[in-house]
Design goal:
CATH superfamily of the largest domain: Periplasmic binding protein-like II
Helix content: 40-55%
Radius of gyration: 26 Å
Distance between the termini: 69 Å
Order of helices and strands: HEHEHEHEEEHEHEHEEEHEHHE
Number of helices: 10
Shape: elongated
Largest sheet: 11 strands, mixed
Strand content: 15-25%
CATH class of the largest domain: Alpha Beta
Number of strands: 13
Length: 280
């Protein structure tokens, strides 16, 4: 009887060990099967470079078998690329145009950005009104002395045609196709560098790239800060869009997972870390 009991106990123990091993193997296979892999391609806005790179790096760190690449070709070019199918995501630092939407592009707002108006650090004019900006960029006011500054010509710097930053800036001020530029530059970094190195220059850039090489002027008495943009008191702000061809739900599993990550707490932390405002 004792021998028989021992055999039963041994048999039961063996079964338990076998079941444990099977459950363990099953869990491992499931985890492996759920791992993301593949490539996501983006192209578009130079103003979104910091956000796009930071989000890509964070997503790849969480998903080692995924590669996310981004090219910075300008908003219009990025949207054209996603419509043509040459990239998965078109980054645009402006709302999509009706013509882009009619061609299949879908506007997915992932963050809100402020547009900072910058001058060189020696400029004594540190505050402007909306009317001042309109007068400067349409060529009505051409000397800083007209705005309480020193007697020096205003060097008007802006972005190239097709830039999302330029489009948003001119649309907010309602001066589209009416601007008189001394310099039209092809990237956010180029505008920042030009204003920093040019006496009397004024330009506009994404808020998150502003550093101590320039002065961000207050507009209508309100400083260009994330807090003021959230409060709605700073009027120069715009959406950062990651456009897709068709709804997100129509994209690949990998692209859908990327957008889910952007909307997650981890993704929102990345947005805020680069000086932008996260959206729900």
């Amino acid at each position: 009887m004792k021998n028989r009991t021992k055999k039963i106990v041994a048999l039961l123990s063996a079964c338990v060990l076998t079941l444990t091993a099977l459950v363990g193997c099953g869990s491992g296979d499931s985890a492996t099967g759920s791992e993301l892999s593949g490539k996501i391609t983006m192209a578009g806005s130079t103003s979104m470079e910091k956000l796009a790179n930071a989000m890509a790096e964070s997503f790849m760190e969480a998903n080692p078998n995924v590669n996310v690449s981004a090219e910075f070709t300008g908003s219009s070019a990025g949207v054209e690329s996603v419509i043509s199918g040459s990239v998965d995501i078109g980054n645009s630092s402006r709302n999509l145009k009706e013509s882009e939407v009619s061609n299949g592009a879908v506007e997915n707002i992932v963050a809100i950005d402020g547009i900072a108006v910058i001058v060189d650090t020696d400029n004594t004019v540190t505050e402007l009104t909306k009317d001042n900006l309109i007068a400067i960029y349409t060529g009505t006011v051409t000397n800083w002395s007209e705005l309480g500054g020193v007697d020096a010509p205003i060097v008007v710097v802006g972005r190239e045609a097709g830039s999302g930053t330029r489009g948003a800036f001119e649309e907010i001020l309602e001066i589209k196709d009416a601007c008189v530029y001394a310099n039209e530059l092809d990237s956010t970094g180029a505008v920042l560098a030009k204003v920093a190195s040019t006496a009397g220059a004024i330009g506009y850039v994404s808020l998150d790239v502003v550093d101590d090489t320039v002065t961000a002027v207050a507009l209508e008495g309100v400083a260009a800060t994330v807090e003021n943009i959230k409060a709605g008191s700073y009027f120069l702000s715009r959406p950062f869009v990651m456009a897709t061809k068709g709804e997100i739900s129509e994209q690949s599993e990998l692209v859908q997972a990327f957008f889910e990550y952007i909307k997650s707490e981890e993704g929102k932390a990345v947005v805020e870390a680069v000086g932008l405002i996260a959206v729900d």
